[in-house]
Design goal:
It contains 4 helices and 5 strands, in the order βααβββαβα. The chain is an alpha+beta fold. It has one domain: Aminopeptidase. A 5-stranded mixed β-sheet has the order 1-2-3-4-5.
Length: 147
């Protein structure tokens, strides 16, 4: 049985190998610092998926207000499921957890980015299967500049 709950600081050591699997390796000290800073912000959060023995996945989100629409935006900052537990409905449960939280900000848009490198592991098809799309007049181009 998979349990979904809000993450706590004691979970950070188990999040570390998962953030590495996502492609963003860091060390424990940095991740603990980020976690502490992140979860105190209004509308920000991290949830974990646990089996009977350990954390097998997590999702992180942030909230912002939109200017061009009268809606709140929840952005999925990251979603990762341990490679040995993928395709078992864990990601779907984590996203449902966030969607339930997001409803309190309704009207709300939930958005995310999923890089091209994630297409081959099935991430894009997963998001489409749970209702997320990037097609038609709402299609987006993600542009980024680090300074």
């Amino acid at each position: 049985m998979i349990n979904i709950r809000h993450a706590v600081i004691d979970d950070v050591p188990e999040l570390l190998p998962l953030i590495d699997q996502l492609g963003y390796p860091t060390n424990l000290k940095n991740l603990e610092r980020r976690f502490r800073k992140y979860i105190i912000l209004d509308g920000y959060g991290v949830a974990v998926a646990c089996d009977s023995t350990k954390i097998i996945g997590w999702v992180a989100w942030s909230k912002s207000e939109t200017f061009v629409l009268d809606k709140t935006r929840i952005h999925i900052e990251g979603l990762v499921i341990d490679t040995q537990h993928q395709k078992q409905g864990v990601g779907k449960k984590l996203m449902a957890f966030v969607e339930k939280i997001a409803k309190k900000y309704s009207p709300v848009i939930i958005d995310l980015t999923s890089g091209l490198r994630r297409a081959k592991d099935g991430s894009h098809e997963f998001y489409k299967s749970i209702g997320y799309q990037n097609e038609g007049h709402m299609a987006k181009l993600y542009l980024r500049k680090e300074i």
